[in-house]
Amino acid sequence: DNPYLLSSSLTTFASGATSVAYANGNSEWVGRLIKASGDTAAYEIATVSSTTLTISAVYAGTSGAKAAMVYKKFPNRVDYSRLNFPESFGPDDFSRDVLVGKGDRLRAMYSRRDALYFFGLYSSDRLTFSVDPSPTTSNLLPINGNRGVFNQRCVVDADGRLFAFDRLGVYEIGEEPRAISQHVDPVLTEFVDYSEDAQFHGIYDPIDRVLCWWVVFLGEDVPKYAAVVELDTIDSSDGPRWQFYQFRQGITASSIVAS
Q1: pLDDT tens-digit profile of 2-20?
Q2: CB within 8 Å of 82: residues ≥ 6 apart
Q3: Which strands, in side-by-side order, build the sheet including 169-172?
Q4: Which candidate, 67, 54, 61, places its Cα nearest to that of 5?
Q5: C-alpha distance from residue 74 to each of 77, 89, 157, 176, 236 (Å)
Q6: Weakest mean pLDDT among 46-55, 107-116, 170-179, 233-242
């Protein structure tokens, strides 16, 4: 859940008041937090009308038009269903806060037989259970190594093995992350524009048996290059075999279609 940004031209705060002038509020913001640019304190939104946002406490900042952001109080809270009852999904069933105390924000999730995985940008957790995944009978375990993922599309399943791409490179996901891109990490560091990480995406081609991650290079505005590794070389004594693909047009999404 990314913060919703409010323009200073539309948002006015008043010192000592319990309301913020804003004409385009969303009723779904009730219970979320609003924080003015430059402030250290955030305020819970109590009500939303056509002209104002009512906040839960007196505004302690200075009066004036200010940019602000609205965000969830618990941005890393995940609601999930009971086992074999997907229709039971909702906060009244099972709910867990993930990546707690890591200063990170949830970016991706992936379900496997062994666990449900949660990824931030530089940290990750896995939810394990024996019979019942309820909050009281499951275990939320941190994954070592300070590894995460850029976004949901950068998590790739290949023949039951799970791989991800983050700021440190490409790695295989497990209880202990295993780096596999050491040979090309210097190239990625030098040429990739990481400010465009929302556009990065990956895929596994089961016919050619390669994993590909498309990235934006410096000077480009769309992904035209892919870092590609042959799956069957990852465990070889010579190490993973990497290469780069270049495309004339931007490749903005990837999928596997059965024919």
Answers
A1: 678 899 998 999 999 999 9
A2: 88, 93, 94, 133, 134
A3: 155-158, 161-166, 169-172, 178-179
A4: 67
A5: 6, 18, 29, 27, 43
A6: 107-116
Write out the two tokens for 190: 């030098």
What are the C-alpha distances in Å from 35 to residues 51, 68, 100, 234, 247?
Answer: 18, 5, 21, 47, 43
Tokens 């390669």 sit at which residue? 210
Q: What is d(CA 229, CA 240) in angstroms, rounded to the nearest whole number?
A: 7
- CA 11 – CA 38 distance, rounded (Å): 14
Strand 68-71 relative to strand 4-6: parallel, antiparallel, unpaired?
antiparallel
43 close to 34: Cβ distance less than 8 angstroms: yes
pTM: 0.74
